[in-house]
Structure formats: structure tokens, C-alpha cells
Amino acid sequence: MSMTIAEKIFAKASGKKEVEAGDVVMSNIDVAMTHDLTGPLSVEAFEKIGVPKVWDPEKIVILFDHQVPADSLDAVTNHMIMRKFVKEQGITNFYDVREGVCHQVLPEKGHVVPGEIVVGTDSHTCTHGALGAFATGIGSTDMSMVFATGKLWFKVPETIKFNIEGTLPEHTYAKDVVLNIIGHVGADGATYKACQFAGETTSNMSVSDRMVMCNMAIEMGGKTGLVEPDQKTVNYLKNRTNKSYDIIKGDDDAESLEIIDIDVNDLEPQIACPHNVDNVHGISKVEGTPIDQVFLGSCTNGRIQDLRDAAKILKGNKVSDSIRMLVIPASREVYTKALNEGLMNIFVDSGALVCNPCCGPCLGGHVGLIGPGEVSLSTSNRNFKGRQGSSEGEVYLSSAAVAAASAITGKIEDPRNL
């Protein structure tokens, strides 16, 4: 029987020879992640079960990233709850306030490898599918059951393969590709489906760029994002992990596979306009829109390549006096690389504010919020009402290059103009 990569991973995880889309299977979990915002709810639910110890303290990863350093008494309380849980359960993979955003740190630290089932109490856990794992977000109650048993029920999803072909024009990036796809498919166009990114364009992308696309699979309703592992995957994992893994590839004739062809040869920079991620337009339609804040960072576009792309544009230029710009690296590793490459000097000299690795204003609960009537241009993944502060504010989404160009002019700017 021919199977998709998602079906093959679930067959392996459930101990079955074959599964097909629509089957409900009990799957072994390889990695379970939670953070400071959703973790306390998982701990509370786990304690109600009455099981004294988690199933495997070495397969649980706990990070602080949403509100670090703690910005309120509630945040402090959440941190204390999780530190206590880590100590009581002997959880070995604990990253306190130092490391950065969970979806960047897990791959950096070698916790994600191809062919595994990765779950996290965060919807953007789908990011890790860029390494060929089936990674998805789950609720805090479901996570408590994973803590207790190491297993979880899943309905095996159908797969949409986005066959992306062509050469990206100047100043267009993976972010533009995925925003364009979401704009065409719609916010619910891939509901509970595995969104597989394939084709020559994807093959030519770095693992970092593949993470951008998988990160945003949830924004079209996807259960996960997926890229079949290749030599770039293997190279990325080298020196990051001692875990053994299987390179699993799907069959093109699998019955549950739908293929959508995407041509990027003529793609221009894309902008997701308020207040939905699928409200996507080419930059020529919204160029000149005044902004109040630029946010460069998040689990979508806070990686070293994003900082490099932005620094090239900002070097020798100044952030407009009419706005503020926040630069928030996704992890300490990214932060250190940016320091060593002199990128931070460029950002500081330009007038940007450089913050510690964290989620920043992305969730609307920490640094850099916008007020009523203010407009944010963000490299993050969501632009819902109130997402970055006031429900009377507006959020536009873009690539790092567009963010940098717009910071200079104080309005949404096509980087090809500079």
C-alpha cells in the first residue's frame, strides 16, 4: 500500500504495518514540549490524574520563552510552578529564561529528528516538520495524558503537497511563498491536513527557510507542516544530536495525497493585511501604508538569516524617527551569531531596540505592545485583532527584508526600491 510521509510516520508510531488517512491510532510520542505560558495548565491537569511520575523525563522538554524575563506576578508564578515540576520529576531537558523561543531551541538542541512524533502545547509546534518529523500542537489536557502515558490518540490526516517550482525573485523569501499559499488556500483551506512543501524551490531552501513555511501551516488550518528530509536535513542535524533516526519519504501515488502546483518565478513580496493571515496582497497594493512599529523576530522570522537580510538593508541607514523598531533574536544561539557577525552593531546604530531572545510582542502579552490606532509591521505569524496589544490596533505581516526597508521609511516599503 502506498502511503504519504505522514501516514508512514503514524504507522511506525502506532506499531502498524499500514495506516491510511481517517484511521484513528494510538501513537507513541517521541518528544513532548511545553512552555511557561501553557505549561502550568498541563501540570495542573497531570496532578489531577494522580500518576506520581511522568512516563519519561528525558523525552519532555520545558522552556521559558513567552514572558521572559517575567513581566508580571502571574508570569513569576508560572515560572515557579514549572521550576518546581522540573525538579520533582527530574526532567533533564529544561531551558530557563536564557535560551529563547521553543520552536527555535528544540531543533538547535537536537531534540527533533526525522520520522518522530513531536507534540507541544503551542499551535506553532508544526514548525518542526521542516526536519521531517510529524509535529503538532495539542491542548494542555492532552499534554497531561502524554506526561502520564507517553501516548496520544490521533486521526491520521490527509496530505496536501504544495509542489513549489521556480526561482524566487530578488527580495522575495520563504515568508512570501507561504503567505501567498495561505492567501490562495484560505485560513481553513487545509483544515486537519498535513501541509507538505516540496518541489525544486523547497529543495533549494535552507532548513531555516523550510521552518518558516512549516511554522505557518497552522495558519491555513493544517495539522502540521512537512518537508521530506534530505541531505540538508542531515547536515543540519550533524553535531546537534546523538539520536538515531529514519529518513522517511512519502509515495507520490498515495491515495490521500492532493497536489497543488505553485510557481514563484513572478512572485513579489507579500503582505498579510489586518485582521486575518489569509488577507494577503502583493506589496504593490499596500505600499506606502504608514506604520508605528516594526517587529523583527518570532518563531517565524527571528533566525540568523532573517537578521542578516534585515541588516544588509539597515546598514548605513537610520530607523525613521516616526516609528520604533524591535529586533528580537529567536534564540541565544542566533543572538550570539548576530553579535559575532556585527549585526547587532548595525541594528543599534540604526536606532533599533535589541531585546533578549523571547516571543516579544507576538502574543500580545510582553514587550513591545501597540496601542489603540497604532499599526505594527511584523515578521511573526498572526495578525488577529489584539494579537500584539490593543484590539483597536492593526498588524501587517511581512518578510524580514520588507520589515527593514519599512523601518527606514516609516511606511510599508518594497525593499526593491532601496
UniProtKB/TrEMBL annotation:
| An MF annotation (GO) of this entry | 3-isopropylmalate dehydratase activity
Q: How does it assemble?
A: Heterodimer of LeuC and LeuD.
What does this protein's UniProt record list under function? Catalyzes the isomerization between 2-isopropylmalate and 3-isopropylmalate, via the formation of 2-isopropylmaleate.
The first-level EC class reads lyase
Name the residues that bind [4Fe-4S] cluster.
Answer: C299, C359, C362
Species whose genome carries this gene = Methanobacterium veterum
- The answer to keyword Amino-acid biosynthesis applying to this record is yes
Q: What is the lineage of its organism?
A: Archaea, Methanobacteriati, Methanobacteriota, Methanomada group, Methanobacteria
Keyword tags: 4Fe-4S, Amino-acid biosynthesis, Branched-chain amino acid biosynthesis, Iron, Iron-sulfur, Leucine biosynthesis, Lyase, Metal-binding
**Cofactors per UniProt?**
[4Fe-4S] cluster
In which family does this protein belong, per the annotation? Belongs to the aconitase/IPM isomerase family. LeuC type 2 subfamily.
Descriptive protein name: 3-isopropylmalate dehydratase large subunit
Which biological processes are named by the entry's GO terms?
A: L-leucine biosynthetic process
Q: Which residues cross the membrane?
A: none
The record ties this protein, via HAMAP family, to: LeuC_type2
Any note on cofactor binding?
A: Binds 1 [4Fe-4S] cluster per subunit.
Domain Aconitase/3-isopropylmalate dehydratase large subunit alpha/beta/alpha spans what residues?
Answer: 8-286
A Pfam short name? Aconitase
Q: In which pathway does it act?
A: Amino-acid biosynthesis; L-leucine biosynthesis; L-leucine from 3-methyl-2-oxobutanoate: step 2/4
